[in-house]
């Protein structure tokens, strides 16, 4: 990082997508400023100007230039500040990592949302779907410590922030992740011991209360 | 490419996702074998084994090792065979390209499908949504010849195969792309003059007939 580099995140405390960016910056040892967005009260002009298409967090502003979409931002951080590589060094390893990142992006948050933003049969179906996703991730992890092997890396950074929401999924879906995916469950504990992760992730109980508040607002409880 | 390298695509003629991979290989001048899948009659054992999660084409088999998901495969091809770079060389350019690739992946095919796989008001809404997507792409293109600037590259390879389906969208949605996005329309013509694209893309009339056949099978006509 050049001495004059300015790194700002347009952030939201409970967003697993924002947490990815913050963990990546921690892993690189980069100083940055977090600008918390008021997603319910009104988004900032800077957010709307920086991300006119999706109008959502996170945005990384690197010397005022916006980089968008969390998996893309983590990749950009890795390519821009090359110390402590997050992505695998070989093309095939990168392709495998990007496959799982894409899978996580398509499945984890939306399936999880279908658990906590529903009731009755819809929630039961969503819970079964989520357990299928967990089993696929369990198999991808296999006997490895991290998704990429021995070292904490790209796929771990993309996946672990979702774990702050898992308490809410478990309570509302009435299941335990460790009963269905014990290796994945052990991987969560392993990641949470890491300083970058522990520093960034919100308290799952606080996320659960946020979810309950959201459910009330939406008339689900 | 090493002399002994074997490159096989598990392919389907009408798939814009498969076409991306074929165009990228043409751009790199790489010899490859296409194995056409019978998606309606029964997928091959090789496809099910290579892509157990999604069970879909394209799959790139590079010396029998599977690489999955078309945007990821094009990126892998570019990183593995470095002559004639498809992605921008600077990290910020790559981040911008990946943003638009993600946007295209999320919006173009699914919104297009909502036009041709529906009727009545649902189709009208889908057509309006599709025109919004076109306008965003028109703005991203701006006054440039290609999405990345002067040279045909990553975003162009991801986007142009969808154009083989545009005749079907236009006929069923009753609109003309050039009326809403003239620069994007000129970009399509520019790309179609390129040998790699002309060689790979199917005839839009044949795709339109395929869509009509599909609509009949689904009881939409």
Automatic annotation (TrEMBL), chains A, B:
InterPro entries: Glutathione-S-Trfase_C-like, Glutathione-S-Trfase_C_sf, Glutathione_S-Trfase, Glutathione_S-Trfase_N, GST_C_Tau, Omega/Tau-like, Thioredoxin-like_sf. GO terms for biological process: glutathione metabolic process. CDD domains: GST_C_Tau, GST_N_Tau. Pfam families: GST_C_2, GST_N. GO terms for cellular component: cytosol. It comes from the Eukaryota. It is found in: Cytoplasm, Cytosol. Keywords: Cytoplasm, Transferase. Its main location: cytoplasm. Residues 5-85 form the GST N-terminal domain. GO terms for molecular function: glutathione transferase activity. Its EC number is 2.5.1.18. SUPFAM superfamilies: GST C-terminal domain-like, Thioredoxin-like. This is Glutathione S-transferase.
């Amino acid at each position: 990082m050049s001495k004059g580099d300015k790194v700002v995140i347009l952030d939201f405390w409970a967003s697993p997508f924002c947490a990815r960016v913050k963990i990546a910056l921690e892993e690189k040892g980069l100083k940055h400023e977090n600008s918390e967005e008021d997603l319910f009260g009104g988004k900032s002009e800077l957010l709307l100007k920086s991300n006119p298409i999706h109008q959502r967090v996170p945005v990384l502003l690197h010397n005022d230039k916006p980089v968008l979409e969390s998996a893309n931002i983590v990749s950009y951080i890795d390519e821009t500040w090359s110390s402590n590589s997050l992505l695998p060094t070989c093309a095939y390893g990168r392709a495998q990592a990007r496959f799982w990142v894409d899978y996580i992006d398509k499945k984890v948050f939306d399936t999880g949302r279908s658990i906590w933003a529903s009731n009755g049969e819809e929630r039961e179906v969503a819970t079964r779907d989520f357990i299928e996703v967990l089993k696929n991730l369990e198999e991808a992890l296999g006997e490895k410590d991290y998704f990429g092997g021995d070292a904490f890396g790209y796929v771990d950074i993309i996946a672990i922030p979702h774990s702050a929401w898992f308490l809410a999924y478990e309570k509302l879906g009435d299941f335990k992740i460790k009963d269905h995916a014990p290796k994945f469950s052990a991987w969560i504990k392993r990641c949470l011991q890491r300083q970058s992760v522990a520093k960034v992730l919100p308290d799952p109980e606080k996320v659960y209360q946020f979810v309950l508040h959201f459910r009330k607002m939406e008339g689900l409880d």
